[in-house]
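User:
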Amino acid sequence: MGASHANAQESRAQAGELVCRGGPSVGLIVGSSQRLSCTFRSFETGRRYTYSGTMRRVGLDIGVTSGSRLLWVVFSARSSRVKRSTLAGTYVGASGDASFGFGAGANVLVGGFNRSISLQPLSIQGQTGVNLAVGVSRLTLR
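Assistant: Predicted structure:
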C-alpha cells in the first residue's frame, strides 16, 4: 500500500503555491465558515491567478480569530501547467489548528477538476485569536 501511495505522489507534478488570506472567524462549536481571498503562483511560468474561496469546517471548532493566512504547495495529476481556472472547484480533507494569541494549523485537501489537484502535503496556517479546531474541511475556490 505504501508503494502505491508513493507511485501516485510521483505521478503528480509540483505546479506552484496557493496563498489564501481569511478574515475574522467565529467557531460555532460544531463547525465554522470563513471567506478567503487566494492567489496561485505557478512555479513554471511565475504567473499569478486570483481566486475567491470559502473554507467550511465540520467538527470541534471553538473560539474567535481575527484572520488567517494559509499556504499550500499545489500538485497536479496532469502536468505542472496550471491555467487560470484550473484550481476552481471543491477540495476536502482533514484539518486542525489552535491559537492563543498567535496560532498555527494544518490542512490536507484533495479535489479540483476530477480530483486531479492536491493541496499538499500540508498547508501552513497562521492566525491570531483564541481558537481550537479539529475536523473535516471543505474548501471551495471560484
